[in-house]
Amino acid sequence: QVQLVESGGGLVQPGGSLRLSCAASGSIVNIYDMGWYRQAPGTQRELVAIITSGGNTHYANSVKGRFAISRDNAKNTVYLEMNSLKLEDTAVYSCNADVEISVSPRARYWGQGTQVTVSS
């Protein structure tokens, strides 16, 4: 199986910055897309940003120019640099990865989520 472990969430003031990390572990053969999603109370989970194995990226319009997704393939880790944070960025952020492992078909896996709270 695969485990995705996020870190880096917390409380930050509006205009501040946070960096999230998500490390994948297990019998990994290859990781394809990796992405970040978020869910605020009372809303549906939404895509924040995604990065392909080749480094192509896609962002939600609401975070373009403020957030940056990157990955370190050697460490099986994806990052989300969040700048100019707004109150509406408050949510649980979860990482997702499309992973091929040695004993199971290719599948998508989720992390447990990390809380990001933007508040003055």
Description:
The mean pLDDT is 96. The chain is elongated, with a radius of gyration of 14 Å. Strands 2, 4, 5, 6, 9, 10 and 11 form a 7-stranded mixed sheet that branches. It has a 4-stranded antiparallel sheet with strand order 1-3-8-7, with no helix packed on it. It contains no helices and 11 strands. With 120 residues, the chain is mainly β. Strand 4 and strand 5 (46-51) form a beta hairpin. The termini are far apart.
Return the average pLDDT rounded to an integer: 96
Largest sheet: 7 strands, mixed
Q: Using only CA atoms, what is the Rg?
A: 14 Å
Share in β-strands: over 45%
Count of strand segments: 11
Low-confidence stretches: none
Q: What order do the helices and strands follow?
A: EEEEEEEEEEE
Helix content: under 10%
What structural category arises from helix and sheet content? mainly beta
Shape summary: elongated
Distance between the termini: 40 Å
Query: What's the tally of helices?
Result: 0
**What kind of oligomer do you see?**
single chain
